[in-house]
């Protein structure tokens, strides 16, 4: 039986209602200076012309189109992972585009030890552009990477990264469809556990379009954010145990953004709230994470230290009052 040569890289593009941008995205992919790749376009139930635009590119034998019922970006990326055949995986959002040397930059850093390769990102809109993710040319282990880079949404996004498909498939790593925000951070933290060496590249390869309806524009949601916090922390604790001050600093750095989201989602912009409910939330969630709370508010004129002490001593009523003062002042 004739076996077609598998591509070195699979590019997974989740597509949803992006008819205005998808062609720029696809042209930037298909015009790459490095050509040993496949493109998996996952049309996630688009209601505009995105699906038919994707189909029009099937004439290029590197392009494979999958149409599915709308299920969210996580389910779309997971379908891409299930059908990818490349040795390496990268993701591109359908309203973004990539530099002509994006794949070439990655391939120059592929060796026997690097498991995770990342390059710089520029954010742009109709009026301006600026670099939002910067890297030096360096290789590092997990701990050094976690010490240098946090789980801010830009750094935790799946795009601008190259990952080994074998690591993903061997460890059944998927995007969690239960959450609508931070699923990429959880995916990356889970993947990072199995990486021996992480390579960062001092070259701009990815252009992120800042649009009002972009994939990352998600409002606060308590259940989502609480679930995300616990999942990320549990994954981190598998290889960064909470047993030293140095490790706690890593956990602070990685969890501070999600922790802030949880606090904001508890109060949801309301100065008045059900203290009984809030007390339960604070008791169940924050007392064991008081050092992260302190880190979050450490620059608030000593209020972070006071809040940390209140949580340690389970003074929930006063902690609630102080949180409201910090949030609504």
TrEMBL record:
Q: Does the keyword Zinc-finger apply?
A: no
Family matches, as CDD domains: Glyco_tranf_GTA_type
* Keyword Ligase tagged: no
Domain (Glycosyltransferase 2-like) ranges: 10-135
Looking at the record's lineage, which domain of life comes first? Bacteria
Alphabetically ordered keywords of this record: Glycosyltransferase, Transferase
InterPro entries xref list: Glyco_trans_2-like, Nucleotide-diphossugar_trans
Protein name stated in the entry: Glycosyltransferase
């Amino acid at each position: 039986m004739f076996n077609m040569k598998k591509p070195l890289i699979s590019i997974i593009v989740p597509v949803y209602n992006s008819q205005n941008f998808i062609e720029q995205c696809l042209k930037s992919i298909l015009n790459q200076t490095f050509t040993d790749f496949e493109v998996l376009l996952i049309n996630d139930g688009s209601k505009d012309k995105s699906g038919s635009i994707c189909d029009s590119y099937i004439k290029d034998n590197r392009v494979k189109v999958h149409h599915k019922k709308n299920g969210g970006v996580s389910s779309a990326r997971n379908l891409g992972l299930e059908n990818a055949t490349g040795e390496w995986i990268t993701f591109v959002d359908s309203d973004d585009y990539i530099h002509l040397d994006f794949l070439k930059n990655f391939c120059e850093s592929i060796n026997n030890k690097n498991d995770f390769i990342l390059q710089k990102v520029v954010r742009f809109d109709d009026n301006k552009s600026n670099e939002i993710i910067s890297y030096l040319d360096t290789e590092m282990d997990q701990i050094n990477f976690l010490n240098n880079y946090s789980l801010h949404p830009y750094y935790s996004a799946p795009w601008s990264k190259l990952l080994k498909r074998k690591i993903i498939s061997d460890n059944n790593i998927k995007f969690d469809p239960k959450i609508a925000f931070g699923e990429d951070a959880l995916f990356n933290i889970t993947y990072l556990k199995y990486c021996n060496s992480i390579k960062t590249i001092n070259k701009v390869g990815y252009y992120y379009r800042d649009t009002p309806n972009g994939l990352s524009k998600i409002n606060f949601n308590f259940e989502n954010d609480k679930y995300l916090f616990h999942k990320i922390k549990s994954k981190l604790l598998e290889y960064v145990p909470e047993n030293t001050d140095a490790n706690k600093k890593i956990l602070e750095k990685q969890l501070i953004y999600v922790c802030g989201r949880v606090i904001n989602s508890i109060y949801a912009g309301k100065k008045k709230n059900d203290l009984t409910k809030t007390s339960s939330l604070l008791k169940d969630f924050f007392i064991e994470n008081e050092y992260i709370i302190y880190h979050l508010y450490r620059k608030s004129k000593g209020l972070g230290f006071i809040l940390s002490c209140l949580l340690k001593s389970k003074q929930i009523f006063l902690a609630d009052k102080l949180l409201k003062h910090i949030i609504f002042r």
